[in-house]
Amino acid sequence: MRKILNPYVHVEGYNCFACSPNNENGLQMQFVEDGDYVTCEWEPRGFLQGYNNILHGGIQATLLDEIASWFVQIKLKTAGVTSSMNIRLRRTVYVNKGNLKLRAWLKETRRNLVDVYVELINPDGKVGAEGVITYFTFSPETAREKLNYPKPEEFFEQKE
Description:
The protein is of the alpha+beta class. It has one domain (about 30-155): Hotdog Thioesterase (Thiol Ester Dehydrase, Chain A), CATH 3.10.129.10. About 15% of the residues lie in helices and about 35% in strands. The protein has helices at about 55-75, 140-145; strands at about 1-5, 30-35, 35-40, 80-90, 100-110, 115-120, 125-135. The longest helix has 19 residues, at about 55-75.
C-alpha cells in the first residue's frame, strides 16, 4: 500500500470540493494505492446529511465519482472527465456510525472510455453504495495541458 499525495495543492486557485485539503467546506478525501485498487477511508460529517443522520445521496455520488477520478489518474496515468455515472444506493449510509471506506478498480476500457467500478462501504463492512463511473480519458499530454495533470511520480513520495 502507498499513500497517494495530492500534487494539485500547488496549483494556484485549486479548491476542489472533493479532494482539496484546504477546502474547509469540502470532503477533503485522501487516497491510497492498494494493489489494483485505489482506496479511501473517509469520516462523514453531520452537515452532509440529507435525512436525519443519513449521508446525502448526492454526497455519496460525489465520493464515488472522485475516487474513480483518482483511480484513472493513478492506475492509468492520465486524467479525464466524467462521462456517465450509474450508481445504486443499496443500504443506508449514516454520518454518525464511523468512518466509511471507498474502493475503485478497473472494470473495462473501450478506446478512451474507461469504466471504473466503485464501492462505498459502511463501517459494518456492507456495501452502502456501488456503481460504475465512465470516464472519457485524454492522452497524458492533453491531460497535462488542459487539466494540469502532473507527472505520475508526483503522486508519491520519492525515495532518496
